[in-house]
Amino acid sequence: MRVVAMLAIAAAAAGSTEAPKTLVLDVGLVRVSSLRPGTQKPWDPPSEKAQSTNGNCDVLADAADLVMDLSPFHVPGSTTAVKVGRGACHFLTGVAAKGQVTSKTDPDPFVRVVASPEVSYRSPTIVDALSHVFHFRVAVPVGAIPNSGLELYVQNDSGRGTAESQEVIGSLRLRRKQLLDAFEGSGLLRLDDKEGGLERIEIAVSEDDSKGVKARGTLNVSKASVARIPGLDINAGDVVEVSAVGRYELEGSPMGADGLAPNRLNFTDAALRGAPHGAALAVVGEYGRFASFLTKSCRRFVAPSGGILAVGINDQRPTSKAASGGVTRGSVSFQIDVRPPTPEEWRTGVVSGRCEAPPQTAVALADRIDQAPSSPTRSEVLSDGDGPDVAPAAGAPPEAAVWSGPVIAAVQRLAQSRSSNIAIAVQRILHPSGNGAVLRNFDYVPDPNKLIFRFATSWRGAFGTRYVTTVAWEIGPDGHHRAAVLSDTARIPIGRRNLQELNRYFATNLYPMVAQDIERTY
Questions:
Q1: Where are the alpha helices (DSSP H) in 287-392?
Q2: Fold of the CATH domain 14-55+85-207
Q3: Long-range pairs for 142-147 at CB < 8 Å and ≥24 separation?
C-alpha cells in the first residue's frame, strides 16, 4: 500500500503544472445598454455633460513645439527609433478617446480594477460610447486576489470627483479559480451584468511570465525635453524603475538628474510644478490619461494606468539658445526596468526595496572658468562656537591650476553659508543614531589636476561622546569626482549604501550649488 501511495503521489506531481504567479487581464470589448436599466432615460443629459477626467497633457503639450530631434531609444528586440515632432502630446494620447458612433447622451465609460480600499487601477475614459474595445491591460498577482473575488467596475465618468465616486454601469467579481480556469482553457472570459447596464465585457487572461523588461536611451536636452520609448508598453500595476544619469546645462545652469531649485520653467502639472527644475521625470499613460512622476536619479513606482512610457526632464523650453542667452546643452541617459508587482506592492501601490541611483556627474567647468582669476590657496577657518577651531591644511602647493580658483572660492562660500546643513547631512547619512552635528573645520589641498576639500564634522553619539568624521570631496576640471570618508573617530563600521548615499549627496545636492555660484560670479 505504501508503494502504491508513493506512485500515486509521483504521478500527480508529474501531471501538475505550476500556477502562474501574475496574470494579465486585457479588457477588450465593453458594451453597455443605450438607456438606464429599467427606464427610458439616457445615461447623460446633454446639458449636464462635463469635461472628461482623462487628465491633462501638460508635460507633452507644453513640450510639443520644442521637440525636434532626439537620440533614438532602443528596446531589445525592437528596431523602432523615436520619431518626434510637433504634437508630441500624441505620444501619450494616441487616437482620440471617443466612441465610433456617438451621441451626447451616451455614457463616458471607463474600467476600474480595485486592488484595495486605497488603490485601484483604471483605464482612460472613452467619451460618448455605448461600445468600445479598450485593450486595457492590468497586471494582477494571483496572491492578491481576495477570496471574495477581484472587483471590476465599468463606470460613467461625470468629469467631477474621484474615480470611486463615479456612477457604476456594471460590476463583476472575478474569482481566482474563474481566472485560472480561463487561463488554462480558452484564455477568454465573456461576462455581463444585466442587472446593471453592462451587456457584454470580454477579458483575455494570460500569464505575465516576464522576468523584467529593460530599455535604455539618451536624451539630448538641447533638442527635446520629453521623448517616448518605442516598443515598450506598460500594464497598469506594473512596477517601473527609472534611473537617470547625465550632466547638462539649462540656460547656462549646470545640473544632474536631481535638478535644481524649482522655477517658472517647470512643467505645470501638480507633480512637477513645485519640483526641482531640470530633474528627470517619467510619464505613463494613453488616450490623454497619464500620470507623471518626478524620478530624479532613480525612482520606482507602480503604474496606476497602462500605456506607453515617456521620459525626460522638468523643463518647458529646451532649446539650443534660450531667451536669456544662456546655453542649453548636454544629455541625460535613462535606464528603465519593468517587472510584475508583488501582491503587497499591487495592493498598496508602494514599491518594496531600495532604488539604487547611478553616480551623478555635472557639466564640466573648464570651458567656462579657465580664464577666471585664481583665488587664495587656503581657506578661512570656520567657527561654530562649539570648541576650538582646527587649522586649515598646511604644506599645500602655493598655487593650483588656473581653473581651480573659482571652484575654491565657490566651495568656501558654500561651506561658510551652509556649514550646519552639511554637518547634519553628513552625520545623518553616515551615523543616523547620532545628533548635535557641527562643522568643526573645512580646508582643502590644491593640485593641478584636482582639488580635495575636507569637511570635519563633530557629532555626539547615543551616550553623549563626541566623535569627528572627516569627509574628503574631490573635484576636478570636469566636475565632481567623488566624496568619501577620510577618517572617523567613532570606529563604527559604515555601510556601503551609506557611503554611496554620501557620494550622491555631494554630487547631486552640493555640486550643483557650486556650479551655480561659479556661473553667477564669473
A1: 343-348, 366-369
A2: Immunoglobulin-like (2.60.40)
A3: 142/19, 142/20, 142/21, 142/22, 142/23, 142/176, 142/179, 142/180, 143/21, 143/343, 144/115, 144/343, 144/344, 144/346, 144/347, 145/174, 145/175, 145/176, 145/179, 147/176
**Residue 413 reports pLDDT greater than 50:** yes
The candidate with the shortest Cα–Cα distance to 413, out of 453, 445, 386, 470, is 453
Q: Which of 280, 263, 264, 167 is nearest to 219 (CA)?
A: 280
Distance of CA 313 to the CA centre of its chain: 11
CB 182 within 8 A of CB 190: no
Distance CA 122, CA 305 (A): 6
Q: Shortest CA distance to 426 belongs to which of 332, 338, 357, 490?
A: 490
Q: What are phi and psi of 518, to 5 degrees?
A: -65, -40
CATH number of 213-348: 1.10.10.10, 3.30.1330.10, 2.60.120.430, 1.10.3720.10? 2.60.120.430
Cβ atoms < 10 Å from Cβ of 223: 20
Domain ranges of the chain: 14-55+85-207, 213-348, 366-521
Per-residue pLDDT tens digits for 152-200? 999 999 888 888 899 999 999 999 999 999 999 999 999 999 899 999 9
Look at the pTM and tell me if it is higher than 0.90: no
